[in-house]
Specification:
Layout (H helix, E strand, L loop, with lengths): L4 H4 L9 H4 L9 H20 L1 H11 L11 H13 L1 H10 L2 H21 L3 H29 L6 H28 L2 H21 L20 H7 L4 H8 L4 H32 L2 H4 L22 H16 L1 H10 L2 H19 L12 H21 L14 H30 L3 H6 L2 H17 L5 H19 L10 H29 L5 H36 L7 H30 L18
Helix pairs in contact: 3-8, 3-9, 3-10, 4-9, 5-8, 5-17, 6-8, 6-24, 7-8, 7-10, 8-24, 9-21, 9-23, 13-15, 17-18, 17-24, 19-23, 19-24, 19-25, 21-23, 22-23, 22-25, 23-24, 24-25
């Protein structure tokens, strides 16, 4: 038999792809039940993004910040966004290295803890910390759930489940303000977050109880068959019994190692319970203890004028026990983080965090950059440059080489542009309502309901269509519809919102078009991603959309403000109220025009997502 040059060099078989390793039958047993629970958790986290819209002033009052200091309440929102975006790539990579179910469980745990901390907060830093934890846990649910779909459904069958995930995520955005209003009608703002705790625990119980076979991660997840030489195998695999005896003593290797492991696990559980109890006491500060002469001393703030519940002896004890818990469990989580490229993740977190804090803290009606933008943007740019160098030089970078390939690239671009289009509609349509109809923020937000309800409908429809046509033939027409609808909004005048039929057609068309693109983008990206990169690619798609929302709003706002100042500068009477209102309407029109062009460009790029259904060709076929 004639051997090829590659075989002669000892190369193993080609790396398996989805097309050769995945079944073409239906989903795994229990997949639908697990998806339902995970999707509901995603909806809960999405609702929490907007649940503070109506409760923000009450939350500020609860931590001693008055309405006259509204800018100080900005971190309550930006803290959530920071947690949601900055650590997403790391969570996505971790979901490729460990079981997806474990990632879902830990994300739900973090979300529940963050909700409880927020509910109990009586000082602003604690509330911001709780919101950060909520964003961290809630954001991680999305890529883990999308990757779970890739694990449990074969190629060509993922359209509908991906559509379901996208639909419930968008539905959560609709239900968030409504849920907040409902709870506020019968209770206070703290009950909103205690409800999150209850619902999060129910979702956590569901993920734990539902048993569904999921792929067990290997170092590369995709199985490789490499025939090692005897010498190499003995060097890498064969244990050294003499060394084990020297370390643990003759005959005691297994017994002593098991005892040490058991001791560490027991200590970790004990410290976890103790830390939870101390933090509960610190944040709750029961009146029976704080007013007691004998037992109240641990609750006295170190600075009596601060009124802090954390800067107290019991709070410091809780922090010390938490630090000890981290040290005891260090051998378990640090190697995993290092394997996922902790340094690269930190650089990405700084870059993304700088973007979020620069643009999310700005008032979109009057400014582009937040108060720290001049310093944060250079820091973010420097971190991004160092990250790119790290990606090229690291042996095992955060985004493994070859994971982002083929249709993943257009999927990321489409996601970025769609994020910019969505945020312009979400921000500037209510702004137009306040300007022209004199509505308050709540009534102005209700104008968007027609858009927000249409998005999940489009997501379900797009997932269903993927069974019959390719991603490009679903996403591109949908985004073209969105572009036409948004450009129609850009022509709205002062009295246009009074036309119920015209505004409904435009808002519903934009929402339906955007929704149609959700499942195709994820389907194409997951189809061409490597088996060991589903979580990473899913996280990048989510990050691209969020970056498009944050940066897109800033850039479009800059264009709108420039147009506004040009209009004001050309006025014969700068104090003419009607003329100033017209200039403000022109600003909104400019922003929506830019959003329409972004959607149109996304429609063009979406043509590269593939015209045939995903299951109709091999992922590694030429030209796919």
């Amino acid at each position: 038999m004639t051997r090829t040059r590659e075989e002669g060099r000892g190369a193993g078989p080609p790396e398996p792809t989805e097309a050769t390793t995945r079944p073409t039958a239906g989903p795994a047993r229990g997949a639908r039940a697990l998806l339902a629970v995970a999707a509901l958790a995603v909806a809960l986290a999405a609702a929490d993004t907007y649940v503070v819209v109506l409760a923000l002033t009450d939350m500020m009052a609860g931590v001693g910040v008055g309405i006259e200091s509204l800018q100080r309440g900005t971190p309550i929102i930006s803290g959530f966004l920071l947690g949601y975006i900055a650590v997403l790539p790391l969570i996505g990579r971790l979901s490729d290295l460990v079981d997806r179910r474990r990632i879902l469980i830990w994300c739900l745990v973090v979300f529940v803890v963050g909700s409880a901390v927020t509910a109990a907060a009586v000082e602003l830093p604690v509330m911001v910390g709780g919101r950060f934890l909520q964003g961290l846990g809630g954001g991680g649910l999305v890529p883990a759930t999308l990757a779970l779909v890739a694990d449990l459904w074969p190629r060509g069958r993922r359209g509908m489940p991906l559509g379901v995930v996208g639909a419930v995520q968008e539905l959560g955005s609709v239900l968030g303000p409504l849920l907040g209003a409902l709870v506020l009608a019968v209770a206070g703002w703290r009950e909103i977050f205690w409800l999150n705790v209850v619902l999060g625990l129910l979702a956590l119980l569901g993920v734990v109880l539902i048993r569904t076979p999921t792929p067990t991660p290997t170092p590369d997840r995709a199985p490789r068959v490499v025939a090692p030489t005897p010498d190499r195998a003995s060097r890498v695999v064969a244990p050294d019994p003499d060394r084990a005896s020297r370390v643990l003593g003759p005959g005691a290797t297994g017994r002593r190692a098991g005892w040490v492991t058991g001791w560490g696990t027991g200590a970790a559980y004990l410290l976890t319970v103790l830390a939870a109890a101390l933090w509960t006491l610190a944040l709750w500060a029961p009146q029976a203890l704080t007013t007691s002469v004998e037992l109240g001393l641990p609750f006295v703030p170190l600075d009596p004028d601060s009124g802090s519940r954390v800067a107290t002896p019991v709070g410091l004890a809780a922090a010390a026990v938490t630090l000890l818990l981290a040290l005891v469990t260090l051998p378990r989580w640090l190697p995993l983080l290092l394997r996922a490229d902790l340094l690269g993740a930190a650089l990405v977190a700084v870059a993304l965090g700088s973007l979020v804090l620069t643009f999310s803290t700005a008032d979109p009606e009057t400014e582009v950059l937040g108060p720290w933008g001049v310093w944060l943007l250079p820091l973010g740019a420097a971190s991004a440059v160092v990250f790119v160098l790290r990606q090229r030089l690291a042996a095992a970078p955060l985004v493994p080489r070859g994971v982002v390939r083929r249709r993943v690239w257009p999927a990321l671009v489409v996601s970025l542009l769609v994020g910019a289009a969505i945020v312009a509609v979400v921000v500037d349509v209510p702004l137009l309502s306040r300007l022209t109809q004199g509505t308050d923020e709540t009534d102005a937000a209700l104008v968007l309901v027609r858009f927000l309800v249409a998005v999940p409908v489009g997501a379900l429809l797009g997932g269903w269509l993927l069974r019959r046509v390719g991603p490009a033939l679903v996403a591109a027409p949908g985004l073209a519809l969105a572009a036409v609808s948004i450009l129609a909004m850009a022509r709205w005048e002062r009295a246009s919102l009074d036309d119920l039929v015209g505004t409904t057609l435009a808002l519903a068309g934009a929402g339906l078009g955007v929704g149609l693109a959700i499942a195709p983008v994820n389907d194409a990206a997951l189809a061409d991603a490597r088996e060991d990169g589903h979580g990473t690619v899913s996280s990048l798609v989510v990050v691209a959309r969020m970056v498009g929302m944050v940066v897109g709003l800033a850039l479009l706002t800059a264009l709108g403000l420039r147009r506004f100042h040009v209009e004001v500068g050309s006025l014969a009477d700068p104090t003419d109220t009607d003329a100033l209102l017209d200039a403000a309407v022109v600003q909104v029109q400019t922003v929506l025009t830019g959003a329409g062009y972004a959607a149109a460009l996304a429609a063009v790029v979406a043509l590269a997502l593939g015209r045939r259904p995903v299951g109709a060709f091999r992922a590694d076929a030429p030209g796919s």
